[in-house]
Amino acid sequence: MTKETDESIMVPAAVIKRLPKYHRYLEELLNEGREKISSQQLGEIVGVSAPQLRQDLNYFGNFGQQGYGYNVKKLYNSLAEVMGIQQKSNMVLVGVGNIGQALVNSRDFEKRGFYLSAIFDTNPKLIGLEINGLVVKDVVELKDYIAENDINIGVITVPASSAQEVANQMIKAGIKGIWNFSPVDLKTPPNIQVENEHLTEGLLRLSFKVKEE
Amino acid sequence: MTKETDESIMVPAAVIKRLPKYHRYLEELLNEGREKISSQQLGEIVGVSAPQLRQDLNYFGNFGQQGYGYNVKKLYNSLAEVMGIQQKSNMVLVGVGNIGQALVNSRDFEKRGFYLSAIFDTNPKLIGLEINGLVVKDVVELKDYIAENDINIGVITVPASSAQEVANQMIKAGIKGIWNFSPVDLKTPPNIQVENEHLTEGLLRLSFKVKEE
DNA sequence: CCTCTTTTGTGATTTTTTTAACAATAACCG
DNA sequence: CGGTTATTGTTAAAAAAATCACAAAAGAGG
Hints:
alpha/beta; transcription regulation (chains A, B); globular; 2 domains; 8 helices; DNA-binding; homodimer
C-alpha cells in the first residue's frame, strides 16, 4: 500500500519548495484542533490546487484515505519526517554581525529541532562575548568543533568576501548542509547541500514587480 | 529594433527570479573592469545556460550585439532600469526586533537605492530609541507617515500575530510593495506586490535535502 | 449489508519552462 | 573592403510542471 520512499525517484525542486509551507499550515490547523482535512480544503488554505497538493504528497507516500481525506496530525508528522525534522540536528553559526546576532537572539528554529550549538567570529572584540547564552568562539576552532560535535548544518552570516573560505572549512570538517546568508553563490561539492537566503535579491524582485505594476 | 517593453507580455516568475542574480554578477564583472561578455561566458558564471540567459534578457529588450556580445556596463544599467533601481525608493520598517534591528543596522540595501526613511514599533521601551541614526516611532504614526512621505515599500519584521494587521495599515496608507519577513502569507489586493523572506522555510528545505542525500 | 457520497491516487492532457538550432548581423583581420 | 568568425535574437523541439479527469476505495446511512 505505501509507496516506495526510494530516493531513486527524483523529487522536483518545485515540490521541495512547497513542503515547508504545507508543514506550516498543518501546524496551524493542528493548533486549531482540526482533525481531518481534504486536499481541496488544504489546497485553498495553502494556495495551491487540490490535484497539485495530492501529487506533491504522493511523492513521499500515500498519506490520505479515500472518502475521508487526510488526518491533520498524521500528515503533519509525516511531512516532518520527510523533511528530516523528527531527529534533532545541531548547527554552528559563523559571523556574529547584524544578521548573525539576530539569528542567535531569536533562535526561532529551535522549536523545529534545529539547535545552535556554537557561534564563531574572527573579530577579537566579539570573541568571548556571550550572546543569548552562547559564547562567541574564535573561528580557528571551527573545524575541530564541527568534527567533534556531531554538527551537520552550518550557518554562514559573514561578509561576502569571506563566505567561500568559511564554507570550505565547514565542508572539510564534515558538515552536510549550509544555510547561507552571504550574497555569494558558494562553490560546493555535489554532496553538500546549500540553501541561500539572498535577501537583497528578494528586495530587487519586489522592486521589479512594484515598477511593473 | 528594440522590443516592446509593453507589459502585455507577462514575464514568467522564473525569469524575474533570475534577474537580481544577473545584476549581481554583472556588478562584479564591472568592478573587475570587464568591458564585454558573451551570453556563453556570463551564463557559465551565473550558472544558467546561454540560450536561457539570452531568452531571459530578450523579455526586456535587445541589449546585445551580434558578433560582439553584451557590453557589461550597458547591460548592468539596463537591468537596473528594468528592476526599477535607477530611481531611488523610500522604505519604512515596522518591527524593531531581532531581524528588524539587523536590517536597520546593516542597511545593505541603501547602496542599491533603497532608503530606510523611518522605523516603527509598538513596544514603549523601543519607541524613541535611536538605532543607526533612525529614531523608533510609534506604530500609530505609521499610516500618516507613509501617506505624507512618498514611501512605496514597507518592510515587515513583526511577529506572525501582527503581520497582517501591519500590512493592512501599510496598504491603506498607499504603499506599493511589502518585503515580508514574518512567517505568514499576507492577504493583499492584487495591485500590492509582496516578496516573502520566509527564513524558516529555507532551513526546512535544507534539512530535507540533507536528509535526502 | 448494500447503496450513495466523498475523496484519494494516478494516468492522460495541457501548459509552462528550458534547451536546442539556426538564420541574421556585426565585428575583426588581412 | 570582402571574407571569416563570433554571437545574438528567435523560432522550433524537448522537458518539466501543473491541471484535469476518473476509476478505485473507504466511510456513512439506512
